[in-house]
Amino acid sequence: MSLLDDPVQFSKIFHHFRSGSIFRNVSRHDFARLLSAATVKEVTPGEQVCVADVAPGAPPSSSFYILLSGDFNLNGSTIPGGIQNGIVGVEDVVNQAPRSVTLNALSKGIVAEIPATSFRTLLGSSTPFRQSLNPLGPIAAAGPDCIAPCELASRGNVVQFISDIPDMPLSLLIELLSREIATSFADSVLVLRACAPGQAPSVAPILLPNAGLGALSYMLVDANVIADVATHVPHYDYVMLDGVTSPAVDVVVKLFFGYPQEFANAPVGMPRIFQTCVVGQPPLPCSDDLQYINANMVQTKHRGDCRIRLDLVQLRALAQVWNPYLPLVSLDETLTREMGVWARALTCRRTGVVLAGGGVWSMQSVYLLRELYARGVPVDVITGASAGAMVGGFYSVLGLAGLDRIVECGDSGILDLLITAWMVCPAVAQNFLEREFGKYTCLDHLWVDFRPNATNLTSGLGVAFTEGPVALAVRAAASAPPLFAPTFSGSQRFVDGAFSNNVAAQVLPYFGANLTFAANTYPPSYRPNVPWVPGFVTRTLSLGPLNRLFDFTVALNLLANITGAVEGGYADIAYDASATIPFPFLLTSDFRKSSQIVNEASQNPVLNGAIDAYVARWEHLRLRGQRTWDTLPP
């Protein structure tokens, strides 16, 4: 049995590994590759799983274990099995030390053994995995909750580029990508470029000045000779092959037109295929129907790695005047942004945000997105339900101007009128959203990976949309029964995503997010304690149908907040709104208070504290090649 055969088990292990400092920044893809090499076996009471090797000169530990179920004795102490307690021996594997643990089964159970060879192979073939375990800077003393990493030899990724697009200026794109990685992330990059006709190969790499935080070097090699990258990979995080072939390739970047496809992880030791879907100008036509994935069952596969929007006419013109040894001063904002998206995806630094539904209370997410932008934290993936999907849609389509627009629509009463008209005629909502987002704007054409979530009543599943019109997807994610009619796409019947996953943080890693934030903005409801006055009339009023209906509404809203907090636990950083008034659901549809909610959010110490923690985590992820272990945020 493979650990990847059970999505729920895979999700539990993944999130527990990510809760420990040593695996905190490991990407979902690399983690799946590591688990694919695990051997799962059943143990019986009294069976010895492993024994400590204390002999002088003992070899390094050959594996570590995940205790999936059962009770065990670890070095004389009893521990229950289960993901929360069951990672044994990983310190020895990381530090290449002899096995220091003795593990015996006390009951029937299941363990997974991960070979140290697979761990080391992945360490050597994935720069993000190596950087997350061993910062390149001086290693500080580890805190009590950290595992002190050993001095692992630096070994960079060798990256090859393949394009299915005619006349693609691939050398220019490799140049722009390499500069972005070096300048933004403090990584060291070497570009091995094939010599032009009549050009002599370089004797040694040439360091380009002004490479920002990192280092960017070039080396010209003979295109007819297979490059010897072994002499270079120990000194760089990434070695980019530009028109050069090499048998030692870790990542193959494939550029193509079309739509990203779902893919399984490559086995440890095999090159990873990094899909890069290019959205040209104008983009491909948008499908009329909504495509989706199951958001309730955690996926063990992964969605396409990256999608970038490129104007090929502009790129080809830029390639005519491009000089790799001079700064590029003619890059526009769009091209710079897309190179950042591509660089974060390749280096496993993508970020994701989930925005909860809750009517006007979702306007707190407006402040969240504005603050992240102001503090330089990118948002690569957004998912949301109900009004959270509305906020995410406006931001994903229109950027910061979209956040201003939705607040303006709320303050002016447009959204209140929309809600009233929507209850009578669903076409009103569709026309409004198409006017704001564009009738033919597709989910796969946006500058942000926007994946609103809804509830599919036809299949009984919570879903996250992957393809289709933005307007239709947002309407489906916000079609709250019984106020609004369901949204139909083909034969499928969709209603508000809050009824299945109001805070669908678990889907963000599937779309490639390596650092996630959950905004559970819907506050809990409660009923104030009122003095009990005996009497028949009081009993009738307090226990009658109207009060019971009110109790049901309060309990339902409390359930939405509590389940959102549980779902938000899948994220790295989560914000949970607290109760400020007894009955917040009474204000849910009063969007005229949009600016007030945004202003109150800006002064909320809990929300601002969560944002501060997220910014700190982003800075650690961005500069993980230089950070030391004592700088790791909690």
Folded structure, characterized:
With 634 residues, the chain is of the alpha/beta class. It is built from 19 helices and 26 strands. The protein has an eight-stranded mixed β-sheet, with helices on one face. Strands 16-22-21-24-23 form a five-stranded antiparallel β-sheet. A five-stranded parallel β-sheet has the order 20-19-18-25-26, with helices on both faces. The model is unreliable at 135-154 and 627-634 (pLDDT under 50).
Mean pLDDT: 82
Query: Pairing-aware structural class of the strands and helices?
Result: alpha/beta
Using DSSP, what is the number of strands? 26
Number of helical elements: 19
* Helix content estimate: 25-40%
Report the span from N to C terminus: 35 Å
Uncertain runs with pLDDT below 50, 5 residues or more? 135-154, 627-634
Mind summarizing the main beta sheet? 8 strands, mixed
Q: Beta fraction of the residues?
A: 15-25%
Nearest-angstrom radius of gyration?
A: 27 Å
Gross morphology: globular
Reconstruct the topology from this structure:
Layout: H1 7-19, H2 28-36, E1 39-43, E2 48-50, E3 63-69, E4 71-74, E5 77-80, E6 87-88, H3 90-94, E7 103-105, E8 109-115, H4 116-125, H5 127-133, E9 157-163, H6 170-185, E10 188-194, E11 206-208, E12 215-221, E13 238-242, E14 251-257, E15 272-279, E16 291-294, E17 306-309, H7 312-320, H8 333-346, E18 351-355, H9 364-374, E19 381-384, H10 387-398, H11 400-411, H12 414-424, H13 426-437, E20 449-450, E21 453-456, E22 461-467, H14 470-477, E23 487-489, E24 492-496, H15 498-501, E25 515-520, H16 536-543, H17 545-568, E26 573-576, H18 594-602, H19 605-622
Parallel strand pairs: 9-13, 9-14, 10-12, 10-13, 14-15, 15-17, 18-19, 18-25, 19-20, 25-26
Antiparallel strand pairs: 1-8, 2-7, 3-6, 3-8, 4-5, 4-7, 11-12, 16-22, 21-22, 21-24, 23-24
Helix pairs in contact: 6-8, 9-18, 10-11, 10-14, 12-13, 13-14
